[in-house]
Amino acid sequence: RKEVEQDPGPFNVPEGATVAFNCTYSNSASQSFFWYRQDCRKEPKLLMSVYSSGNEDGRFTAQLNRASQYISLLIRDSKLSDSATYLCVGDTGGFKTIFGAGTRLFVKA
Amino acid sequence: NAGVTQTPKFQVLKTGQSMTLQCAQDMNHEYMSWYRQDPGMGLRLIHYSVGAGITDQGEVPNGYNVSRSTTEDFPLRLLSAAPSQTSVYFCASSSPGDNEQFFGPGTRLTVL
Q1: Can you say how many angstroms the Cα of residue B80 is from the centroid of all Cα atoms in its chain?
Q2: Residues with Cβ < 8 Å from A95, sequence gap 6 or more?
């Protein structure tokens, strides 16, 4: 079983839709979690950190559920420019950073 | 600032050839890492460094060597290329205590 698992998608949604991605992790020692965004044939870039208390940045909301060992990302009012692959990342510290394989999102007009 | 730069952008090698992928950063970051990204696998850590003169193995180090003689540069050497090393290679840097990793644009390597 992979340490960080994501639904690969693709998720195809119309503009303006709300879409949610989930990610599960198996290592209970994981301390920090993040969502990175990766555009086609580009490098990953940090989208947001994930906290147990929840983290909101504009249209994006990230949540961590330690009891169930999953992380979520909610995107409201989807834009065409949101089309990308979203990588879930768990970090146990000491360079034990595990990237999920990514969830592909296509937002269509 | 240029951030993290990688050269070359594309490379085709024959089995058994060796080469060095270059990585440089101008953000004075202590930490640098090399990852490979394969379809369906996510990014996997090859080698990393926590400072000049200090390197360590990641999850998939076999077939690769690294060195860190300066803070800015972190080259990755393929000793004897194999088709299994066909991948996209990303270099990343970060500061201690800072969660964000900054990635270079990647090197797309094909081994025939």
Answers
A1: 16
A2: B31, B33, B45, B48, B50, B56, B58
In this prediction, residues B76-82 reach a mean pLDDT of 96
Pairing of strands A32-38, A19-25: unpaired
Q: Tens digits of per-residue pLDDT, B45-63?
A: 999 999 999 999 998 999 9
B94-109 per-position pLDDT tens digit: 998 777 899 999 999 9
Q: Which residue of A has its CA nearest to B100?
A: A46
Interface list for chain B against chain A, based on CB atoms closer than 8 Å: 31, 33, 35, 40-45, 48, 50, 56, 58, 90, 99-101, 103-106
